[in-house]
Write a structure and sequence with these properties.
This protein has 354 residues and is of the alpha/beta class. The chain has 2 domains: 7-162 and 339-351, Glycogen Phosphorylase B (Rossmann fold, 3-Layer(aba) Sandwich), CATH 3.40.50.2000; 167-334, 3-Layer(aba) Sandwich (Rossmann fold). It is built from 15 helices and 12 strands. It has helices at 20-25, 39-46, 50-58, 60-78, 93-100, 125-129, 142-152, 167-175, 192-203, 242-249, 267-274, 285-290, 303-314, 318-334, 339-351; strands spanning 7-10, 33-36, 82-86, 105-110, 136-139, 156-158, 181-187, 208-211, 225-228, 250-254, 279-282, 298-300. The strands form 2 sheets. The protein has a 6-stranded parallel sheet with strand order 2-1-3-4-5-6, covered by helices on one side. The longest helix is centred in the first third of the chain and has 19 residues, at 60-78. 34% of the residues are buried.
Length: 354
């Protein structure tokens, strides 16, 4: 793609800054003219009312057609060279066809699976029906990218997740000299898989701290499970750094995969290691490419090894744990797993489009 100054419309949100779209958009170079797509936020606002939720459930086209019009209108006004849509649950192939006819390149970046949906939030038929109309499909997972290519014969690329911790934030956390809490921790909301694995730990007499919305429906506070409730209304954390403090301060940070993450990685793969946390995560080939086992990261393969690894990490000496923390942080910085780098790589992929 031969363009002097790239004009880019990209998914994002002005309402939620804790999204991959925001992380990438906020790190785009000043050499690019870009604007955030507005239909994502508009869709979220519409579905805040009960009546619109009912309408969307019964007549999804009524909502989606409005988002289509909003999307096409923004394209007409901004006149981009390329549009990057994250997942695309809110619009249909009809608007994509209209945009393609204007000579605009379309790129889809999906943080879940584009045609195997494991829950309502991971995708819908609009995502799957739109697959043939994109010039490029980007996935965080090399496995999913291969499946897309094999099943739909579309052009694919891989762009892994990353971390959005800045050097200034890291330095501030280190300067606080937080005392380590020699316990197991999980940050995330509950589901059946996560609850089952956490019960395995508590039944093995391993204490677990959980941070996330809804855990009080699955567990009760006890000597072996500590539920940390949201810090303030409308937001979980008390400030922007608390998330990173928690990831670093506990001796063991658990990671669980959703079905579409199997064999690959997820956000925690890079977030925990970037802040010098000790990550215990499902074994996968992709994570082994990013980090060295037992030196920068730890793996488990089943319930038994999950329990064994937790016990091992909880009894490691402070010297050895400090070594792991430093190595994880060093690898993250040396290889530049940041979203600043991911944004650069995204632009490179875009400029390689014919």
């Amino acid at each position: 793609m031969s363009i002097q100054r790239l004009r880019l419309l990209i998914s994002g949100s002005s309402r939620n800054t804790n999204t991959v779209g925001f992380f990438i958009a906020s790190n785009l170079s000043n050499s690019i003219d870009f604007e955030i797509l507005t239909f994502h936020d508009r869709f979220a606002v519409l579905l805040e009312t009960v009546i619109n939720k009912i309408i969307y459930r019964l007549l999804p086209w009524w909502i989606v057609s409005r988002m289509d019009r909003l999307f096409v209108s923004q394209v007409s006004n901004f006149k981009p060279d390329v549009v990057v849509i994250f997942k695309g649950m809110e619009i249909s192939k009809r608007s994509l066809i209209k945009v393609r006819k204007r000579g605009v390149k379309l790129v889809n970046y999906n943080m879940d699976h584009p045609f195997i949906h494991f829950s309502k939030g991971t995708g819908n038929r609009f995502v799957e029906e739109a697959i043939p109309y994109y010039d490029l499909h980007i996935s965080y997972s090399s496995i999913i990218a291969s499946q897309l290519s094999d099943c739909y014969h579309v052009k694919t690329a891989v762009l892994p997740f990353g971390f959005h911790l800045t050097n200034a934030q890291y330095d501030k956390i280190i300067g606080e000299q937080l005392a380590e809490i020699n316990e197991v921790c999980f940050v995330g909301n509950p589901d059946s898989i996560r609850s089952e694995l956490l019960k395995e730990l508590t039944q093995s007499k391993i204490k677990v701290n959980v941070f996330g919305f809804g855990w009080e429906k699955s567990f009760k506070n006890s000597e072996l499970i500590q539920i940390h409730l949201p810090r303030k209304a409308g937001s979980y954390w008390s400030d922007a750094l608390e998330f990173w403090r928690v990831l670093r301060q506990y001796r063991v940070q658990l990671n669980f995969f959703r079905p579409h993450n199997e064999g690959s990685h997820n956000l925690r793969t890079f977030e925990v290691t970037a802040v010098g946390g000790v990550l215990l995560t499902p074994d996968s080939g992709e994570q082994r490419q990013f980090f060295e086992e037992e030196k920068e990261i730890f793996f488990y393969k089943d319930k038994t090894s999950l329990v064994d690894q937790c016990r091992k990490l909880l009894t490691m000496t402070p010297v050895n744990i400090t070594f792991v923390r430093n190595q994880a942080r060093t690898r993250s910085i040396k290889e530049d797993y940041s979203y600043k780098r991911r944004a650069l790589d995204l632009v490179t992929l875009i400029k390689q489009l014919p």
